[in-house]
Design brief:
The chain has 199 residues and is α+β, with helices and mostly antiparallel strands. The protein has helices spanning 2-46, 74-93, 98-135; strands at residues 141-146, 153-160, 163-171, 182-189, 192-197. The chain has a five-stranded mixed β-barrel.
Length: 199
């Protein structure tokens, strides 16, 4: 009888420990997911995220010393933590010990964190190549496709290699430039080209 009672207590302790580990893993997943959602919301509201011009700002916490994507960006870490907690909880639910479930959680976190990191790196490389292309427009001749009003913005079309690029433009002297006028790109300010009439 004592042996049977001891076994029941031991089983009860394991059940409580298992439930507690499950709850802890779920809590970790919830914290990671909440942090991820907060970074998306505040990234959208204030324009600071992780993926450059693609829903983020690479010059904040995501950027490293070279302006690239950091493996410690908020979204990469949030996805890692969420996946760690979620996969750890799945491991506990499937009956694995805490140590094995922790390993499963780490593996899941590394896989999903790596996927997000690679995706962010891809987006950054696309933005970087776009910036290089914009710089290549300096000194080129373009044609005004949408008239530039006095002190306002219009649009110019320029051929760059085999591509035709349409960009927002402003007259360098602030004057008006009608459509179909040939202009020269004098400067790039953000995404806007400063142009003057071609001589």
């Amino acid at each position: 009888m004592k042996c049977s009672l001891g076994r029941r207590r031991l089983v009860g302790v394991f059940l409580v420990a298992g439930f507690s580990a499950f709850a802890i893993f779920l809590g970790i997943a919830a914290i990671g997911f909440l942090f991820l959602m907060v970074s998306f919301v505040f990234g959208e509201v204030f324009g600071h995220g992780d993926f450059g011009g693609h829903d983020a700002d690479l010059h904040s916490d995501a950027g490293d010393a070279h302006g690239g994507v950091s493996i410690f960006s908020t979204r990469v870490v949030s996805v890692f933590v969420t996946a760690f907690g979620g996969f750890g909880a799945i491991g506990i639910q499937m009956g694995y010990r805490i140590e094995i479930s922790t390993g499963i959680g780490l593996a899941g976190g590394l896989v999903f964190g790596t996927i997000i990191y690679l995706f962010a790196s891809f987006l950054f490389s696309q933005q970087a190549s776009s910036d290089v292309r914009l710089g290549e427009l300096l000194g080129r001749t373009a044609q005004v496709s949408v008239a530039i009003p006095k002190g306002g913005l219009g649009q110019v079309r320029c051929t760059l290699g085999e591509s035709v690029v349409d960009k927002i433009a402003r007259a360098q002297d602030g004057g008006e430039i009608p459509a179909n006028t040939s202009v020269k790109v004098e400067a790039v300010v953000g995404e806007t080209l400063l142009v003057r009439r071609a001589d």
